[in-house]
Every structure is written in C-alpha cells, then in structure tokens.
Amino acid sequence: MIRALLIAVSCGLAGLFIFASPLRADEDPEIRGKKVTEWFKFLREDPDARKRQAALQIIDLQAGPKVAVVFPGLLRELREHPDAAIRARIAELLLKYKDKGDDLIKAL
After folding, report:
1. CB count, 10 Å around CB of 84?
2. Would strands 34-35 and 30-31 be described as parallel, antiparallel, or unpaired?
3. Angle made by CA atoms 55, 56, 62, in degrees to the nearest 5
4. Average confidence score pLDDT of the chain
5. For a pLDDT cut of 90, what percent of the chain falls above it?
6. Contact between residue 52 and residue 43 where contact means Cβ atoms under 8 Å apart
7. What percent of the chain is helix, strand and coil (3-state, nearest 5)?
8. Under 8 Å CB-to-CB from 43, ≥6 apart: which residues?
9. What are 16-66's pLDDT values in tens digits?
10. b or e along 65-76 (b: 16 or more beta carbons within 10 Å of the residue's beta carbon)?
11. What is the pTM of this model?
C-alpha cells in the first residue's frame, strides 16, 4: 500500500516537472522575432513616440493577460515610464487585469 502510494506520488512529481518546464519557457514568448521583455525594453527606450505606442499595442494584443511577464511589466511602466501618454494608455489596458485584484488596485 505504501509502496503504491510512493510510486503514485513519484509519478505525479515527475509529471509536474515535465510539464512545468515548457511553461517556464513560454513565460517570455517571442512575438515578431522579439521576446516580450525585449518589447518592453523597446517601449522604454525608443525615441519615437509612435513606435513606443506600437510596441505597447503589440504587447497588449499579442501577449496580454495570458503571458506572465506582461502584468508586472505594465505595472513597472505605469510607475516609471517618462511618457505620460504611455502611462495613460497602460492605465486603460490594466482594466483587462481586473482578476489581479489587490495588486491592480495598489498599482492604480
């Protein structure tokens, strides 16, 4: 009985590790040849305001709530981005993250 339980638990843990590895790789997926974190860097550093808005739109439409790094990245940019238009657009986009509850309220 105990042996069967240990085997079941071992198989379950092995399955978690097997399936968790691909999930970690997808936390920062590639969109149009750049990782999401690279799009955030582009959003932060590009001197052209139109290109920054385009980068934000790509982050929102191609990654959005389904990618783990997007919500924290948006919060960071909401606090720190020097362009008020970008911060305003991010505040609008954060409505998609209402399931984040207290984290979202604190950010806003």
Report:
1. 8
2. antiparallel
3. 85
4. 80
5. 57
6. yes
7. 80, 5, 15
8. 52, 55, 56, 59, 77, 81, 86
9. 333 433 434 468 999 999 999 999 999 999 999 999 999 999 999 999 999
10. eebbbbbebbbe
11. 0.71
d(CA 39, CA 73): 10
CA distance 80 to 20: 32
**Single-letter amino acid, residue 77:** E
Q: What's CA 45's distance to the chain center, in Å?
A: 19
The residues that bridge with 26 in the sheet, in sequence order, are: none
Q: Is 4 exposed, middle or buried (0-12, 13-18, 19+ CB in 10 A)?
A: exposed
Q: For residue 13, what are its two tokens?
A: 């843990």
Residue with tokens 């590639």, as numbered in its chain: 30
Enter the tokens of residue 100. 């984040």
Distance, CA of 68 to chain centre: 3
